[in-house]
Design brief:
Elements: E1 7-9, H1 16-28, E2 36-38, H2 43-50, E3 57-62, H3 64-74, E4 80-85, E5 89-90, H4 99-111, E6 121-123, H5 133-136
Parallel strand pairs: 1-2, 3-4, 5-6
Length: about 140
């Protein structure tokens, strides 16, 4: 935007209101109307738009399956492409960690932003096979 480029934002259907709020925030801040535009096309329409060479840059965050489709659609014209795929952010808890603090932090990492954070924790390797939630935390 600082270089004069417009932004076409297609949010996830799971957080579609975010796109509209983002658009409205830029309009209210005094940016030219339409500089940031949220749109909600069906998947087939989006694939067609991506293949029309209208974008100088494409950024996608989501599944590997859809990311592959995005990359394939834009490959013939080589735009700047950023893909953040997979969403398997792991958490590591050291053996000498304060477990109550670690558990609180892990829960926050999972539920932060209703799970819609691209860095939300989604993978817990079992580092302590004998440890269970009830063995370190109680409701009393």
């Amino acid at each position: 935007m600082l270089a004069g480029n417009a932004v076409a934002l297609k949010p996830s259907f799971r957080s579609s209101r975010v796109g509209k709020h983002f658009e409205e925030a830029f309009n209210e801040a005094g940016f030219p109307t339409g500089l940031v535009k949220a749109f909600y096309p069906p998947d087939q329409t989006l694939a067609g738009l991506l293949s029309q060479r209208r974008f100088g840059a494409v950024s996608f965050t989501g599944s590997t399956e859809v990311g592959t489709k995005v990359a394939t659609a834009v490959a013939p014209f080589f735009p700047n492409l950023v893909l953040e795929l997979g969403s398997k952010d792991g958490a590591y808890v050291a053996s000498d960690a304060d477990l109550a603090f670690a558990i609180d932090s892990l829960v926050d990492g999972v539920v932060y932003n209703a799970g819609q954070s691209c860095c939300g924790i989604s993978l817990f390797p079992s580092l302590f096979p004998s440890l269970s939630f009830s063995s370190c935390c109680s409701s009393t």
